[in-house]
Amino acid sequence: MLTPGYANLWVHFYPIGNTPAVSLTQGLPPEKDANILLLGCGDIRNILFTVHSDKSRRMDVTCCDIEPAIIARNILLVTLIVDDSNDHGNNDNWDMYYHVFIDKTCHDRLQKQAMKLHGLAASLEAWREGDYGNLVAFCDSGTLTRVAEFWAFYISAATERQSWMKKTFRSVIETRKQKRRDTGLTATGVRSATPSGMLAGLELNELHEHFWKHGTMYMDHVVRSQATYANPLFASPGSTVKLHYAIDPLLGFHLSTAYVPLAHASQQSQGSPRVSKTEGVVAAARAEFLAWSNTFKARGRENVRLRFFAGDAISFCHTLQHRHVTGSERSAHWYRSRHTTLEPLVLIEDDYGTDGSAPVSFNVIDTSNLIDHVGGLNLLAAASPLLDGHASSSLYTETLVQRTHSQQEQLDQLLGGHLPTSSLLLGLFPVEYWTNTCHSSIGDEQLIRFILSQQEETTISMKQSYSRVTWKRPPYNSASQMERLHMDEEELAFLLYRVYVEMFPGENMERMLSIASINPESTLHASFPTYTRANFVSFLVLVKKRIVACWDRAIDILLARIECNRTLLTGRHYMQELYLYMHLLDIHSVDTFRSFATRDIGIGTAPKGVPSAAYWQNMPPSVCITLKVPRSALRVFTEPDPSTVGNLPVHGVVRDSSDRFMGWEHYFAAVQLGFGSLSTEGVPFSNTFELSITEDHKGWHGNCFCMQNTPVTAGRFTRQLGLDLSIFKTKLGDTDNVYISKNLPNQTGTITVPAFAEDAFASLTPEPVEFKITVTVMINPNTARIALMTARLDVISRILRSALLGSCPVQITPTSPCAFIVTVNETPITVTFPVPVIAESVRTRIARTSAYIELTALIIPDPAVYPSATFTSPLLFPNFPNSTTNNPVPILWNNPQTSLSTAPIISLSNPSALTFLPVHTGQMFSAREARVRSNPFLLAAATQPERTRIGLKESLYVLFMQFSGLDSKRNPTSRRNEPIFALYNPIAGACAVSMFIFPSTLRLDLARRTVLLDCAVLPVTYGILPTLERSGFLAAVGDQGGVHIKVDGDELRLWKEVLPAWVERCRAGEWAHRERCEYRVGPGRYRAPVSVEAGQEVVCGCGKGVFPVGWEVDVPMWEVVKRYCVRAAISPLFANALVEDVMADVETLGLTLGREKEGKGDGVTGCRNCAREKSREGGELKACGKCQKVRYCGRTCQRADWKRHKKDCIAKGS
Q1: Which of 6, 315, 721, 847 has the most other CB atoms within 10 Å of its CB?
Q2: 3 state SS of 126
Q3: Count of Cβ atoms closer than 10 Å to residue 159 Cβ
Q4: Where is the MYND-type domain (predicted)?
């Protein structure tokens, strides 16, 4: 449809996930039900883990995946889980879902369940009335049909398909051998073992090799020998889907439980102490899967509703948008898949009709790592409008493929420009970026990168670097609706032009040639474009609804810039496609379209037997051209081995046949490919002419289109197809192969891109209120980045207008990097910017006669340089309370909810087994912070906020080291004498000890792959200080001894800002906020903390004294002070890689792992970077291609040395 067309001769099949399971509901308050949308859902791990971690929440989960095989196997597993009343099937379920080869018992059970499911799938009605109708639903009839075909395949695989599947699996094994070619270790398991990744030895690599050698994770030869059946859950009936050669059953689990010593209560995850390391890792994964399954079995039918769609994520999102905007229409005239089908996507009536109950907006959207493959702007423009307006709602993206040096550079590239600027246009707020705080370390990603950097260069097309980003709605001035932002049309046009140019890097030949020698991976990436001009226009649809400007003038300026562009070599050939979609999607109509209705065409009746467009009555301004390509023209692709052809971008070309070299030529990249038999209805060249195509499901290889010129396709097919790479050519008058119609085949209308619904925005003409706020964005013309913002507060209230005229005082008070309180005549008004600004830069204009106040501020250019105490881990409140209880519902902005009851307890009896902990907690300090921390001169030169943030991390490091016993003299075998921690400010007078921390246990936070301290916190206030003294508590604490963590006033205030979030994140199921919660500061207004002043309350009293039964802490006179304490989950605070380097780079990491020092070699007798005397392949060293003076062992070392060699190389070559 709008995205690039691809000739997908074959695709990789990913039946199991390759990243650890995440908690999907970690951003939602406990009181809120979850409406979840999973795009590129993959296997079932995230759903099972979320249900296990968040047992009591009701969840409606809509799952979308392009592969129906994924959905078929997921439904088969969850139905087996809920049917397993006696727990006899747990091992079979694991084997069935994760092993390529299974035994007869497991195979028979699979067959039986497949037959049951296939019998229930006779129709949508039959499914709804069946055993699983209340648990599993289908979004459209096509999904049920496709999934049922796979269940039928599972049944047929009992006998006749066994030999074929075994042969297929063997071919995948051979492919894997060729890909790896003795490349060394497989490092991705380290990610699943975080935070203890450094403890993971060779066993993870051994287990990976074992799986690919035997197809199972069983170590016992006798058990393994019984697995003689090929598992159809890892196969597909066609030859176009191939099992990926790097899947690993263990990667989706949290393997730290196999390496970190656990307390007795959590040891079920570690199996028998007598098993080998490899068996222990497998046992840990199996135990976690068992725990997930048991929870889902107990809670699934009651709390969970699963909906499935098999098709393209972009198409699905736009169709859901259309249903949300219209309230009833179930088709937006998209096809269900963008490459090989012409089946329209129509949602089912019962769930998505006018009275349907299926959600069409969501408070959780997870996109897996689709952003790596479909284009960031495509994905976010499609998904962002589906995110509901609640402040807690979150959209998650993951990147796994590393194409650039830094994550920030990569996200800028994926979004077509500056991350903060692009996200503002999309109506999204990248939380970790603006707060520069996250709760997962990517330190172990550095270890993975280092290991991969040592592998055979020719086998690694793309490096891996895992990153997960949380996107929320920007802060609002209204209750739950975005404000439209205002922009100058010239600035808007310039910004959109820069996005346009960045969307098509492969067309910029000068840019491509400049980077090809340094980074050939960029050339490879450009060979697989993710955008078309139609995609750019769909992005404009969203921007038009988000930004208020003189739109026609902005588009006129934009088109003038695009038409004059000469950097995009083929850009002029795509102009007609750009004009076409601007018209179709109601963005702008150029003169050709505006004047079309007055043209003198379609007059009279065509002569009999002579159909012609000249006689088309009421011809629409745009038509669809369907080109029927004979099978013979596709042999260039279908006759070779598909794996040697790959996936190739294609497009359509319409050209002037009168002059090949001087005539016009127009390219259309937004093409839809399909296979099948074509039939027509109605009179050709009329509005009644319709095309129907009956799909041939065999696709490229069944019996029943021009290729895009990119570096890959040009080099591979020029000889067979010529310089223009044409697959098939004909003339428009060829009525046997060319069909022109009003609508697309099988469709009854024009494709729609609704973007945001009107109710997503605050009304531009609100009902009578006291004031109105308008935010205007200003762009730096040199960088195309947001630079300034102006918030204009128009006073509407007669009382306030009179007060302004009477020269009443106006006070501006910052409350966060985004929010200010404007007090007019003692009336506080909150003015919120959609991104953080520099408070010191705010300039105020008060127009008393015109009754408005303007605040103009600079955008924070670098969150690392401007850290904020209130933004490190904020607790926010929407402007409306719980709808049922009228109690406040705080929102964790970037500090995730956690389930302490499911977090394994770490044993502290042997501190020497916790060597991972100082490394992991030390990763809190970014590379910059580490330099500042270790250099007194840099520390003195740092700003006070920077020193305060470093101080907080130092205190957290002490807290974890002391309690774990890694930096204390306490007896590790004694339950008594657990350290008590006190935050101590020696100049604070009576409240010198401002806060006590009483640790109970150290736990693994599996969802974030980190650790957390389960503790009680006692904020010391003037109100309770006499009680603590009279009761003898302070004296008893002094006798027991403890750890005094010295803090200054600024750091103490930062502790108080963060503490409410640490408390809030672990209250689920234990307590709720009361209507008279101390966070209330006025009618409908709340703030946390209560206060940061000395001796004042910090957290509300709603959760004080509430602890689970059996919860223990080693504190004297606990029963006396318990009622003043509150439970908290304290975890490390890591910097974010989107903002700054979070650790030293791979080369520096190499030094710590024993790598030779950089630059040791002389470049003549040994590699200039590592001193090797032979290449990595064992051959001769290779000379620098430019100067031919120095030698390297391979491309990795040449790249690593380039910064040092560059100046010298240019000098010698000149």
Answers
A1: 315
A2: helix
A3: 7
A4: 1167-1209
Asked whether residue 787 carries a pLDDT value surpassing 60, the answer given is yes
Percent of the chain with pLDDT over 70: 86
Q: Grade residue 871 by pLDDT with cuts at 50, 70 and 90.
A: confident
**Alpha carbon distance 660, 137 (integer Å):** 54
The predicted pLDDT at position 1169 comes to: 79
Task: Return the percent helix, strand and coil in the chain, to nearest 5.
Answer: 40, 15, 45
Beta carbons of 447 and 198 less than 8 angstroms apart: yes
Counting every residue, how long is the chain?
Answer: 1214
Measured from the Cβ of residue 244, the count of other Cβ atoms closer than 10 Å reads 15
Closest CA to 102 of 246, 21, 216: 216
Q: How far apart are CA 136 and CA 351, in angstroms?
A: 12
951 to each of 1, 205, 930, 933, how far by Cα in Å?
Answer: 53, 39, 12, 9
Closest to 699 (Cα-Cα) out of 675, 680, 734, 678: 675
Cα–Cα distance for residue pair 705/628, rounded to 1 Å: 8
C-alpha dist (Å) from residue 542 to 322, 421, 426, 538, 1007: 13, 14, 7, 7, 33
The bridge status of strand 810-814 relative to strand 819-824 is antiparallel
Token representation of residue 327: 């309230």
Residue 774 is inside which H or E element, if any?
strand 771-780
**Half-sphere exposure of residue 622, counting CA atoms within 13 Å on the CB side?**
21
Cβ 1047 vs Cβ 955: under 8 Å: yes
One-letter amino acid for residue 995 of the chain: M
Question: What is the enclosing helix (H) or strand (E) of 557?
Answer: helix 551-564
Concatenate the DSSP letters of all residues of 244-288 into one string: -TT--TTTTS-GGGGTS-B-GGGGGGT--TTS-HHHHHHHHHHHH
SS3 421: helix
Give residue 963's pLDDT band: very low, low, confident or very high (50, 70, 90). Answer: very high
Cβ neighbours for 479, distance < 8 A, ≥ 6 positions apart: 878, 879, 880
Q: Phi/psi at 764 (nearest 5 deg)?
A: -75, -20
- The alpha carbon of residue 225 and the mean position of all alpha carbons in its chain are separated, in whole angstroms, by 41
Rounded Cα distance between 290 and 611, Å, is: 67
Name the token pair of 686.
């009329």
Q: Which long-range contacts (CB under 8 A, 24 or more apart) does 927-932 make?
A: 927/1140, 927/1141, 927/1142, 927/1143, 927/1144, 928/864, 928/1140, 928/1141, 929/953, 929/1135, 930/1144
Report field, pTM of the whole predicted structure over 0.70? yes
Helix (H, G, I), strand (E, B) or coil at 1182: strand
| Distance of alpha carbon 1180 from alpha carbon 1174, whole angstroms | 5
Over residues 483-507, mean pLDDT: 93
The residues, any chain, with a CB within 8 Å of residue 97's CB and separated by 6 or more, are 16, 43, 44, 73, 77, 233
DSSP state of 834: S
Cross-strand pairs, 999:
1015
Reported confidence tier of residue 642, pLDDT bands at 50, 70, 90 = low
Going by their DSSP bridges, the two strands 59-65 and 304-310 should be labelled as parallel
Indicate the pairing of strand 136-138 with strand 463-472: unpaired
* Residue listed under structure tokens 């063997």: 170
What's residue 708's pLDDT?
Answer: 44
SS3 221: helix
Residue 896's Cβ-side half-sphere holds a number of Cα atoms within 13 Å equal to 30
The DSSP string of 891-938 is EESSS----GGGSPBBP-S-GGGGTHHHHHHHTTS-HHHHHHHH-HHH
Q: Which of 139, 482, 145 has its CA nearest to residue 319?
A: 139
**Euclidean distance between the first and the last CA atom of the chain, given in angstroms as a whole number:** 50
Question: SS3 of 80, please?
Answer: helix
Distance CA 362, CA 61 (A): 9
DSSP assignment, residue 997? E
Q: Which helix (H) or strand (E) holds 627?
A: strand 624-627
Answer whether the bond into residue 195 is a cis peptide, omega within 30°.
yes
d(CA 524, CA 463): 13
Place of tokens 């010191």: 840
Contact 841, 857 (CB under 8 A): yes
